[in-house]
Design brief:
Largest sheet: 9 strands, mixed
Strand content: 25-35%
Number of helices: 7
Shape: globular
Order of helices and strands: HHHHHEEHEEEEEEHE
Distance between the termini: 46 Å
Radius of gyration: 17 Å
Length: 204
């Protein structure tokens, strides 16, 4: 199945029309038809991320990237030193270590691990901590998420949903003051939620 086929299938699964998707992306319907017919062969990462958000899925799912199926045995996860939206873990080129999760957890989704690089989430998460992250674009207020802004490297922040957008919060306001992103900015920058932090690994 091609990227265009997956976009079309996902749109129909959600009961969305071409016009619905076009309006959400701020584009014309002809552009969406071009996506689905794959006249645009190399979709930019920013466009792919925005499209995935509207279709309530992930760039990886739209691209058809496959993850190893979970088993009852523990699963080794790559620990990434950095991550960019739309780039699969196996191609990131920045795997610095591995962590294990049990098979029961692994069976609930696709996961990766990420190294914390700054002090913006102290005193909850510290520099050089490792977080275990479940790939998911849909999260709730209060969740700690991995997010990419304007295609920069992924960062970890607490999220709060508000009317017309979201607030990204760092516990250490001296390093990172809360920042609001409107729904329009979520699409235009874009602001892409890659997943939810579910576990902390800290080395002594």
């Amino acid at each position: 199945m091609t990227l265009g086929n997956r976009i079309k299938a996902r749109r129909k699964h959600l009961g969305l029309s071409v016009d619905d998707v076009a309006a959400a992306l701020g584009k014309n319907r002809a552009t969406i038809y071009r996506y689905e017919s794959q006249e645009i062969e190399n979709l930019p990462a920013s466009a792919l991320g925005s499209l995935a958000r509207v279709l309530r899925t992930t760039p990886a799912d739209l691209m058809g990237w496959q993850f190893d199926p979970p088993s009852k045995k523990s699963v080794r996860l790559p620990v990434l030193g950095s991550m960019v939206a739309g780039v699969p873990v196996k191609d990131s080129g920045d795997i610095i270590d591995y962590e294990e999760i049990d098979g029961e957890l692994a069976s609930t989704g696709a996961f990766f691990a990420l190294l914390i690089h700054d002090a913006s989430m102290e005193p909850v998460l510290f520099k050089n901590d490792i977080v275990i992250v479940r790939y998911q674009p849909i999260v709730e207020t209060g969740d700690i998420v991995v997010v990419c802004i304007s295609d920069d490297n992924a960062t970890v922040k607490k999220i709060r949903k508000e009317d017309g957008g979201v607030m990204l919060i760092g516990y250490n306001v001296a390093v990172y003051e809360p920042r609001f992103y409107s729904d329009d900015e979520m699409l235009s920058l874009p602001v892409q939620i890659l997943g939810k932090v579910i576990e902390l690994r800290r080395k002594l």
